[in-house]
Amino acid sequence: MSSESATDTPSNFIRSIIDSDIATSGSTGQVITRFPPEPNGHLHIGHAKSIVLNFGIAVSYAGRCNLRFDDTNPSKEEHEYIEAIKRDVTWLGYDWYELHFASEYFDGLYRFAEQLIQGGKAYVDDQSADEIHQTRGTLAEPGTESPYRNRSVKQNLDLFRRMRAGAFADGECVLRAKIDMASPNLNMRDPVLYRIKHARHHQTGNKWCVYPMYDYAHCLSDVMEGITHSLCTLEFADHRPLYDWVLDQLATPCHPQQIEFARLQLEYAITSKRDLNMLIKKGIVSGWDDPRMPTISGMRRRGYPPAAIRDFCERIGVTKKDSTIEMGVLENTVREYLNERAPRRLAVLNPLKVVIENYPEVHEELLEAANHPQKPEFGVRNISFSREIYIERDDFMEDAPKKFFRLSPGREVRLRFAYYITCTAVIKDPAGHIVELRATYDPESRGGGTADGRKVRGTIHWVSAKQAVDARVNLYDRLFNTPAPWTADDIHSQLNPDSLRILQGCKLEVGLSRDAADTAFQFERLGYFTLDHAPESGDTPVYNRIISLRDSWAKAGK
Ligand code: ATP
Ligand code: MG
């Protein structure tokens, strides 16, 4: 990461805590954070918030951030997700200091569990999961102690070792912490620490048939890595006493500080892995990397620059209160970023041919076009002009009102970087559809002006018919029509039917095919676009619309 982005980072309550930790301890110790995804799905924009926070803090404080796969649950995880998560974190612009799997710590976690048993702090419970659930009590009522709660240390140790050795079937018994069945915090009512699961684990194979629960594994994994600040989302606030309890009982060499922050909830999107998976299963989107998905891979394919996503995560800030962020904030961040950086090109998405009758038939000339209207340092390119060009169908109107400043019969319009043209005739097919226009041009107006200074209000884009490249263009828009689709009983009814419009036969400026494949362009007057990397496209290039030029949702008040 460049230091530039670190110094720009706005402060937040977590940074303030770290600042005061450093100030009060006078410590020169390193700040160590971690990003701990469960490899059971692809990362999404919510994870990006956590990544930017954890890695961003490590960058700012000259500390470290580890990537740790929280793979304590053997049946759910898949190798594919591990690789995808690594790719996504890297693409977002971060290097982890160390890569770990919680499963690496299974031996140590097991030893710690025996230590808890030896200290009389954990016991083997033979009750079923149902019974444990039933006796847990409620917020108003204390729980009931298990009949197995007062087993001797010797008995517990023997049972736990037999659990590990495979003497019991799944669910026959569990290891529980011995805390307080009357605690007002339900998480402290003798939580389960280990369960039996005869399942193969993708990292440890068949070595284990007992697996640690999240709350037990997470705090100790943090200790193993010397994490100083363990940042997690608000729903874990009630788990913090358990986090601290485990570490206190074991007198661990360090005691990471758990700090909770609000999850990111984005309007017009869903970020639950289960719901995202459902969209794929039902064929509503083409996969995890469908450009309409709020996944990191979807945003990458859509053409969102990683720096814009990082910037968005900084802008929304980090708070202790759950709130919903407007989709417009993300889209505007992308738009602003691209406005500054995307080279301009000409493209016609819905072409209508114009034949310029007074332009020499075989002639072709090169016109200079600026790559960015406000940034001369972006340089210029030459675009080809000839007798036949394409303009956007929308830029022509046969019976135009007075205020229509684009092309219509008898009216003059400026072609961007080229000449003034006047429409002289409209050619229609037998069904009455406009198929072609005839026009004349003013040779004096080369470059966009004339000596007589006559007023031409409209400027439209175009491409030379002879030089154009055919392309398919995917016009992406928001996947949902309503700001809070996750609250609906039926998510389907919230889908935006126009979230993808596919346009064939689009005409692109010829130089585009030579430009770097992962560059984002502004197609003038149309929006920002990038080449799609899908393999099915064949010879015809496919461009994705990253984002429109303006926020039509805000304007429409949708
Ligand atoms: P899901 O409930 O969809 O499975 P999760 O929170 O369980 O999501 P993890 O893979 O466990 O997903 O998350 C890894 C890290 O990313 C955690 O520290 C988690 O708190 C954080 N995270 C996940 N979703 C969000 C979100 N929407 N906003 C902020 N942080 C998030
Ligand atoms: Mg999870």
Describe what you observe in this structure:
By secondary structure, the protein is α/β, with parallel strands linked by helices. The protein folds into four domains: 4-97 and 215-266 and 304-330, HUPs (Rossmann fold); 106-212, Alpha-Beta Complex (Glutamyl-tRNA Synthetase, domain 3), CATH 3.90.800.10; 345-464, Ribosomal Protein L25, Chain P; 472-555, Ribosomal Protein L25, Chain P, CATH 2.40.240. It has 14 helices and 27 strands. It is elongated and about 100 Å long. Mean pLDDT is 94; it is low at 1-7. The site of adenosine-5'-triphosphate has 14 residues, from helix 3 and strand 8.
Question: How are the SSEs ordered, and which strands pair?
Answer:
Layout: H1 3-8, H2 13-25, E1 32-35, H3 45-60, E2 64-69, H4 79-91, E3 99-101, H5 106-118, E4 122-125, H6 129-134, H7 153-165, E5 174-177, E6 192-196, E7 210-212, H8 214-224, E8 229-233, H9 240-250, E9 257-261, E10 264-266, H10 273-281, H11 296-302, H12 306-316, E11 323-325, H13 327-341, E12 344-345, E13 347-348, E14 351-356, E15 364-370, E16 380-386, E17 388-392, E18 412-415, E19 420-428, E20 434-442, E21 459-460, E22 462-464, E23 469-476, E24 500-508, E25 520-523, E26 527-531, E27 542-547, H14 552-556
Parallel strand pairs: 1-2, 2-3, 8-9, 10-11, 12-25, 14-20, 18-21, 23-27
Antiparallel strand pairs: 4-5, 5-6, 6-7, 13-24, 14-17, 15-16, 17-22, 18-19, 19-20, 23-24, 25-26, 26-27
Helix pairs in contact: 3-12, 8-9, 12-13
Bound molecules: adenosine-5'-triphosphate and magnesium ion (MG).
